[in-house]
Amino acid sequence: MKEMAKKLPTKVYIAYTFQEFAMGFMTNMGTQYFPFFMTDVAMLDAAVVATILLIGRVVDTIDVPIIGAIVERSNLPWGKYRSWLFVAPPLIVIFNMLMFTNLDVSLPIKTFYLATAYILGFVFVNFTSTARFTMLPTFTSDQNERAALSAKRGQGAAIGQLVRGGITLPLIALLGGGNDAKGYFYTVIVFGMVTVAGLYWIAYLAKDYDRPDIKGRPSASLKEMISAVVTNKPLFFLVLADTFRGAGRQTLVGLAMYYFRYVVGDLMLFALYAPLTSAASLLGSTASQYLSVKKDKRFTYQLGIVIWTIGMVMVYLFAGSNAAIFIAVLPLLNLAVHCLMLKLLPSILTQQITVNGKQVKALKHLICQSNFFPLRLE
Length: 378
Description:
Elements: H1 2-5, H2 10-40, H3 46-73, H4 82-99, H5 107-134, H6 136-139, H7 143-176, H8 180-205, H9 222-230, H10 233-264, H11 270-294, H12 297-319, H13 323-341, H14 344-349, E1 354-355, E2 358-359, H15 361-368
Antiparallel strand pairs: 1-2
C-alpha cells in the first residue's frame, strides 16, 4: 500500500502513452488496410470481403465480453493483467503477418485462410486491450493520476495515428519495391516490432503494481458484468450512443482508402488526409484535459454529438468526389470528438465499478473501449 501511495514515476506516464501509440500499429493495419489488401492485392470479390468483415464483427460481439470475464477471473503468475501483455502481442503480430500474406492458392482456400487469420488476430487484440486498460487502476489509487494516465492514452493514440497516417503508404511502397503484397508483409513486421516493444515495456514497469490476485477473492460472472451495464440506464445509453458514433467513424476508416483510390482517383491523398485527422485528434485529446476541469461533461458531450452529426451530414451532402471538403471536414470532427465527447470515458475509467460487492476492472474496459460490441478500437 505504501508503494501505491507514492507519486507515479514519469516513466510510467511515458510508457502508458507509448503502449497506446504502439498498439495502434497493429490494429490500424487490420481496420484500415486489410480490407484494401483483400480486394486490391489478394483480389477477393468485394462481397466476399464484406462477409469476412461482418463475421469478424459478429465474433467481436461475442468474444469481447467473454474475454473481459476471462481476464477478470484469471490469476496468472506474472500478474493478473500484465501476464496477458507478454502472451498476446506476439500472437497478434503472427496473425497479422498471415493476414497480409497473399498465398498462391484457390480463392475458397484463400478466403478461409484470410478470414481465420483476421478473426484470430483480433481475438488476441481484445485480450491485449482488455489487459492494458484494466491494468490502469493498479498503478495508482490517486484519481488525478488515473485521469492523467487515461489522458496520456488518448495522446498516444493520436500521435500514433499522426505518424502512421504519414508513413504507412510510403513505407509499403518502399519495402515492396513495386510488389504490394511484399510491401504490406514487411510493413507488418516493422510495425509488429513497435507494438511488441510498447506492450512489453508497460508490462515490465507494471511488475511492482500488478500482482497475482488473492486466492479465494470473489469475482463477478459474465452475466453479472453485462447486467451491471444494462441495468444502469445512463451508462447503458452512453455505451449505446458511442457505439453508433463508432460505427459511423469506422465506416469512414474502413472506406477512406477506397474513396481516395476510386472516387477521387489519387490514393496518395490518403497520406495527407490521415495525418491531418490524427493531428486534430491529438489537439482535441490534449485540450480535453483542461476542459474536463472547467466545463460540465454532459454539456460538452451533447455539444460534441451535435457537431459530429452536422459534420457527417456535410460530408454526405457536399463531399462527393470533392476531396478538399472531405479532408477539411473530417479533421474538425475528430477535434470535436476528442475534445468534447471522449471526456466522459476517462471519468468512467477512474471510478470503481462493483457487481454484487465484487470490483470488476475488466468491465470498465468494455465500457471505455467505445466499440462496446462489434466495432474495432479506434
